[in-house]
Amino acid sequence: MFSVPAYCEIITEDYCFATSGDKPVRFEMRTYFDDSVKWSGAFVRYEKSKELIPVVLTSVETDEIEKGHPAELTRKWLEISRGVITGEYEMTSRGASIESMSYKGYKSKKKYSFVFDANAQRTEGVGCNW
Fold first, then answer.
1. Does domain 11-119 have CATH number 2.40.160?
2. Disulfide check for 64: which of 6, 71, 120, 129 has CB 3.0–4.6 Å away?
3. Are the C-beta atoms of 110 and 104 separated by less than 8 Å?
4. What are phi and psi of 95, to 5 degrees?
């Protein structure tokens, strides 16, 4: 019998988002990817909550808008709260630049737009510090 070592390279990304206005709603999204086994996972945590809300990546669309420039990437996640699909997140990015982030609640039918919060201090393994 031979033992084959398992190898995985999980890439973690932390994002901090906020709505605009005097009383912004803030949340962080942490994603995990392992391209070698085609696995991904993610969660969302709102600023005033300790609850981690799982989200499941449902689609990734790539659009090469201009040759020689980074492609536009649109990712969609379903939000799962207490075993029920309660909403969806959609993020569009180009290279390292996040162009848009939105959330649509299935119960309320409302859609919210967020911007990447460059002022939030992100700590590896901890997340967004607002």
1. yes
2. 71
3. yes
4. 65, -130
Distance of CA 99 to the CA centre of its chain: 13
Residue 16 in contact with residue 31, Cβ under 8 Å?
no
Query: Environment class of residue 16 by beta-carbon count within 10 Å: exposed (0-12), middle (13-18) or buried (19+)?
Result: buried
Residues 40, 31 contacting (CB under 8 angstroms): yes
Q: Which residues of 31-61 are buried (b: 16+ CB within 10 A; e: fewer)?
A: bebeeeeeebebbbbeeeeeeebebebeeee
Structure tokens given for 51: 């609850």
pTM reported for the whole predicted model: 0.85
| Rounded Cα gap, residues 59 and 76, in angstroms | 5
At which residue do the structure tokens 């085609």 appear? 38
What string of pLDDT tens digits covers the 130 residues of the chain? Answer: 555 455 668 888 889 999 998 999 999 999 998 988 888 999 999 998 989 999 999 999 999 877 888 889 999 999 999 999 999 999 999 988 999 999 999 999 999 999 999 888 777 766 788 8
